[in-house]
Amino acid sequence: METVLEVYNNETEMETAMEVYNETEMGSPETQPPIKRRKKKSMVWEHFTIEAVEPNCRRAFCKGCNQSFAYSNGNKVAGTSHLKRHIAKGTCPALIHQQDNENNSLMSTPYTPKSDTPRRRYRSQNTTSPYVAFNQDKCRQEIAKMIIMHDYPLHMVEHPGFVSFVQSVQPHFDAVSFNNVQGDCVATYLAEKQNVMKSLEGIPGRFCLTLDFWTSKLTLGYVFITAHFIDSDWKIQKKLLNVLMESYPESDQALSLAVANCVSEWGLEGKLFSVTFNHPASNAAAENLRPLLCIKNPGILDGQLVIGNCVARTFSSLAKDVLEKGKDVIKNIRDSVKHVKTSESHEERFVELKEQLQVPSEKVLSLDDQTQWNTTYKMLVAASELKEVFSCLDTADPDYKQPPSAEDWRHVEALCTFLKPLFEAASTLQSTQNPSAVTFFHEVWKAQSDLSRAIAGEDPYAAGIAKTMKEKVDKYWRDCSLVLAMAVVMDPRFKMKLVEFSFSKIFGEDAGKNIKTVDDSIHELFSEYMALPEPTKPTSEGGKADGLSDFDTYIMETTGQNLKSELDQYLEETLFPRVQEFDVLDWWKQNKLKYPTLLKMARDILSIPVSAAAFDYVFDMEPREMDEYKTSLRPETVEALICARVWLLENDAIASSAATQQMSSAIIKTEA
Q: What is the pTM (predicted TM-score) of this model?
C-alpha cells in the first residue's frame, strides 16, 4: 500500500519538473510570449496557498497553522517536497488534531472488509472549507457575548476545564483572566448602550419609568429602571435603562437618587411623565420624585403621576391574604396531591380510579411552588375538579389515610372563587404587549363590586376573606383611580361614559362628585398641553414668511373663544363601536390630524405602565433577590451584565421575527 508521502511524490514529480521548465528554460517574460501555466494538481495544494511577499519572491503558507515555507525566489523554484513533509510527517499541529479526530471516528466504526475488485483511483476535488485567519480579539468578543447572554459566571474563563477545552479547539488562543473578560463584557455593554441611546433619540412623546426593586442577602437594594414609551409608529415599547445598586434602599432619597441618575444619564430632562414603583415608600420619598417630572404642577391628577402601587404587587398581596386565610385547608390538599405525585404506584391507582368513576376533568395534578401563588391556585383548581377521586381514593389505595373533608372542599371552592379573577387579571401582565390601563380600570372596579357583595353574603368564611381583600383594593383605587380613568377617557370606545357607569356602581350617591373630579382633572391636564410651545411652522416656498402671521393671531383672538377645544369635541362625539380586535393606539395614529394637541396627551397617558414587575415575576409572593454571585461583583459590572443581556436577547428576537416574516413572504410569493 502506498504511503501518504509516496502518493505526494508520484503526484508532484511531474508538476515540479514542469514548473522548473516553465520558469527557467523558457526565458524571461521580456523575451518569451506569456504561457498559460498548467493548473496545480498536487494534493499538497489542498493545504497550501502561494502568496507574494516581496518582488520576485513567493512563499507557501499552510492553511492549517499559517506557517510559511520557501517556494520561489527570482527564477529559482523550491518545489514541493518540503511542503509534503510538513503535511505527511505530522509536523502541522492543525492536521495532527484533524487526524486524531478521524482516528477516533474510525475506532468507533465497525470493520468492513475491502472488496477484491480493483477500484479506479480518481483525483478528488478540494472540498475543505476556506482557511479563516485566527482573530484573538474576535474570540474574546464572542466569549464576552456568550457569558452575557447565558448568564455564565465571569470566573468560568479561569476554570481548568474551560481553559483545556479552548486550547484543544484553538492552541493559539491566549487565555483570558477574570479582569480581561470583565472588561470585555463592559465594552460589549457600552457598545449596545450607544445603540439604545440612538434608538431613543427620535421618540416623539414622553417617557414613563418603572422601578422594580430587588433585595439581596447583604441588605443592598437593586433598582431595575425601565422606560415605557410609544414610538413614532404608535407602538408601545419598553427598554431597560439601568440596574442601580442602592446601599440604603429604605431611605427617603433612594427612589429620587435612582431616577435622577437615570434621567441625567439618558438625557430625559423635561421628558419624564410618570414613575411607577413596587417598593414600599414613605410620602416623603414619593414627594422627592415630583420635581423630576415634566409636569411641574403637583396637583395635576391629584399627584397620581407618581404611582406607588404596582398592580402586580397589589395582586400578589391580595392572593397572599387569600392563601393565608386558607393555609390549613391548602396544606391538606397539598399533602393529598403529594401522596399521588411522589409515587408511581399511587399515581397509577389514582388514574385507574378516575377512569372507573368516569370523572370528566382533564386537569393534571401538580405540586405548587409556594413562591409563586399562581401554582397554588392551579393546584387547588385541579384538585377541586378531582375531589370525587380523592374522596374514594382510600378504598383503592390503603396508603392514603386522610382525604379532605366536605367542608375542606367547600373552602377550596371559595378560595378559587377569589383567586380566579386575580389570576386572570395578572395573566394579562404576561402578554407580549404592555397591558392597557383600561383593562385594569375595569378589573379593579369590578373587584370592588364583587367583594362588597361577598361581604354582605351569608357565607362567613367568604365574607372574612372579602373584607381583608377590599381594604387593599380600596387603597389601590384611591391611589390610582384617576390615572386609570384617564386611560379610559382616551379610549374612543368608552370616553367618560364608562367612568360614569362604573362610578355610579362604586360610589352610589357620591358618584357625581367623583365623576366631576375626573372631568376637571382631564381638562386641567389638557390645558397644560395647550400651553406647550407649538413647533416652528415652515415658511413659504423660497424660505420667506408669507406675511400673514398677524392674520393668524387675529383669527385666534376673534374666534378662539367660540370654538370648542379638541378635548370637548372628542368627548361629545359618538362612541366608537366596541369591536373585538380594536387597537386604540392605531385609532389615535389615524386621527392625528384631527386632534393634533389631544393626540400628544393621549400618547403620554396611554404609555403609563400599571406594573413595575417584569412579566416573568408577576406571580411572585416576595420581591426578587439578587443572587450572591452578582452581589460579589462591582455594581457597574452587574448593570453591564444584566442590561446587555436584555438588549442582546431583544436584538435576537427582532432578527428572528424578521427572518420568519421574510420566509413567510417568500412562501406566499412561491405559492402565488
A: 0.74
